[in-house]
Write a structure and sequence with these properties.
The chain is built from 13 helices and 22 strands. By secondary structure, the protein is an alpha/beta fold. The chain has 3 domains: about 210 residues, 3-Layer(bba) Sandwich (FAD/NAD(P)-binding domain); about 110 residues, 3-Layer(bba) Sandwich (FAD/NAD(P)-binding domain), CATH 3.50.50.60; about 110 residues, Enolase-like, domain 1 (2-Layer Sandwich), CATH 3.30.390. The strands form 5 sheets. Strands 1, 2, 3, 4, 5, 6 and 17 form a 7-stranded mixed beta sheet that branches. It has a 5-stranded parallel beta sheet with strand order 8-15-9-10-11. The termini are far apart.
């Protein structure tokens, strides 16, 4: 044993990062009886998911929604109140992580991790450095907002998504660069605060991976709430006036002025400080590491999961990736079906979907039919005062097997799991027709959509069950 290995503490698994992927990976390894260490460079566990991304943004959304429903006089909830609520929820989640790591005898090492060999991790902190020797490594170091030289982020009036917790609710006008998931979610939050928003997106439509009908429904609702879309446009330069206003000059020649600008285009993986070359790995321009279907890198004992491997960059998926990676590392059979991962977008209203889109089925030549239930037809939708939401099912015309579910409206991210389960078991829409759902609930949408789909088949003259 060389001097480096002699000085290093041995672990069966070292996990770099304590976010969604790292947390679930570490817990899974510990449950398998392995000696595990988690290296986290921040004093607060949980990574971006808890501290700057998922939890803060969803907490902010919920706080704003509750305020907006209280009446017009309360719509401008104070920035300090929002920050306090976010801190309360995030801190509680951090405590949950700390407790889980303690209960599972996982060593938490605060410091910056870097490779100094194939199996050796160096952990550097203000107190000094120490080494870990790992049989297996899971890289789950997460990501940060990507920056653009043309947009000088100053964390005051030109901010990225990590600084959204400091958004001032007294801003009268906001510009958001980026019509992806993060940009759209924050545009909806600002609109709910009665802040006029302009969204600049270089693509011809927002959320181009979402079912077109669902994305159009969201766009319509956002426009009705005061959001302006500048689609097919790119920002050429961002400047600040002497009065502190922010100006975004577009390549088309347009100039958009606002009190603040949020840059929400892409993420940069946190791999630049890992010294990947020391273990024979490399990252692309966005810092992402290539892996196989088992989340192995080109070094079989080193795995990567979460934002460091790119799309879909969802906390829920990262959790599963971390678990699957660790199970594979220790020879535990596991079944995971990425095609059945649900997608949730916390816009206002929410969007969620699972399975195939109409575009995918059309391209594949699959004979399908649709069934739609509008929230306005459902008693629960009326009670919630959500009369714009809808649930759409896609099913095979011949076998009636459920192929996809797409929802926009209140509770979409919860409602989607019913469809997810039916697709997983290769069920047909008859399971919805023959199921009694609680009344009044949004779950009834599945039955109404299934009956609507059967009516479409009946209208074609094909011999199918007569639906109401």
């Amino acid at each position: 044993m060389n001097e480096t290995n002699r000085l290093a503490k041995h672990y069966d698994m070292v996990v770099i990062g304590s976010g969604a992927a790292g947390h679930h990976g570490a817990i899974q390894a510990a449950k398998l009886g392995k000696k595990v260490a988690v290296v986290e460079r921040s004093k607060a566990l949980g990574g971006a998911s808890i501290n700057t991304g998922t939890i803060p943004s969803k907490t902010l959304r919920e706080a704003v929604l509750r305020s907006s429903r209280s009446g017009p006089t309360d719509r401008r909830i104070s920035a300090s109140s929002l920050a306090l609520r976010i801190e309360e929820v995030a801190s509680n989640e951090v405590r949950v992580f700390e407790s889980q790591f303690r209960r599972n005898d996982i060593d938490v090492l605060i410091g910056t991790a870097s490779f100094s060999g194939l199996h050796t991790i160096r952990v550097a902190s203000q107190e000094g450095e120490h080494l870990c020797h790992a049989d297996h490594v899971l890289i789950a170091s997460g990501s940060r907002p990507a920056h653009n030289a043309a947009i000088p982020v100053d964390d005051v009036s030109i901010i990225d998504t990590d600084a959204i917790r400091r958004l001032q609710t007294e801003h009268h006008v906001l510009t958001i660069v980026g019509g992806g998931v993060i940009g759209i979610e924050y545009a909806c939050i600002a609109a709910a605060l009665d802040i006029p928003v302009t969204v600049i997106e270089r693509r011809p439509r927002i959320l181009d991976f979402v079912d077109q009908q669902i994305a159009e429904a969201l766009s319509y609702h956002m426009r009705s709430q005061g959001v302006t879309f500048r689609l097919g446009e790119e920002v050429e330069e961002v400047t600040k006036s002497s009065e502190g206003k922010v100006g975004a000059k577009l390549k088309s020649g347009k100039q958009i002025w606002s009190d603040a600008l949020l840059y929400a285009v892409g993420r940069q993986a946190n791999t630049d400080s890992l010294n990947l070359a020391a273990c024979g790995l490399a990252a692309d321009a966005r810092g992402r590491i290539q892996v196989n279907t088992n989340f192995q890198t080109s070094q079989p004992h080193i795995y990567a999961a979460g934002d460091v491997i790119g799309y879909p960059s969802l906390s829920s998926v990262a959790m599963e990736q971390g678990r699957v990676a660790v199970c594979h590392a220790f020879g535990i059979p596991v079944v995971s079906v990425p095609e059945l991962f649900p997608y949730g977008i916390y816009s206002i209203p929410e969007i969620s979907f699972v399975g195939k889109t109409e575009e995918q089925l059309t391209e594949a030549g699959v004979p399908y039919e649709i069934g739609i239930a509008h929230y306005r037809e459902i008693a629960r939708g009326q009670i919630l005062n959500d009369t714009t939401g809808l649930l759409k099912i896609l099913f095979h015309r011949e076998t009636r097997q459920l192929l996809g579910v797409h929802i926009v409206g209140e509770g979409a991210t919860e409602l989607i799991h019913i469809g997810q389960t039916v697709i997983a078991f290769e069920g047909s829409i008859d399971s919805f027709v023959n199921t009694v759902f609680n009344y009044p609930t949004l779950a009834e949408c599945y039955k109404v959509a299934a009956l609507n789909g059967l009516n479409r088949l009946n209208y074609s003259g094909e011999p199918h069950l007569v639906a109401s």
